[in-house]
User: What shape does this take?
Amino acid sequence: MLERLDRLPAGRWARLRDDVRRCRLRRGAWYPVLSLGEDEVVVVVRHESAIVPQVYLEIVTTRPNRWTVIADERYAVCPNCAQRVAVGTLPEQMRCGQCSGVFEFEPQPDISTIR
Ligand SMILES: [Zn+2]
Assistant: This one.
């Protein structure tokens, strides 16, 4: 059962909000949502389910298809396989060396707001 979790047709995806650090989820990576409770969310993390407080998460209902940019640590996270890639100046789009997917980047805030 556990090894099949990743193949469930998830209708929602979640990632950590930018200011959350104390959690087993990796910054910038999207995780399929198994179920959505009132205060807690069950997500699939490395083939296992994990319960995370809903306030920690940003939740979307369409499959993410853009690189998440972690500006202060200068890397991007693949929306498909969660691979981390170091980036400097962002190109228009980038191919993931892990899954070969080609994705654009999320719109970035003004450079002056990057810590
Ligand atoms: Zn990838």
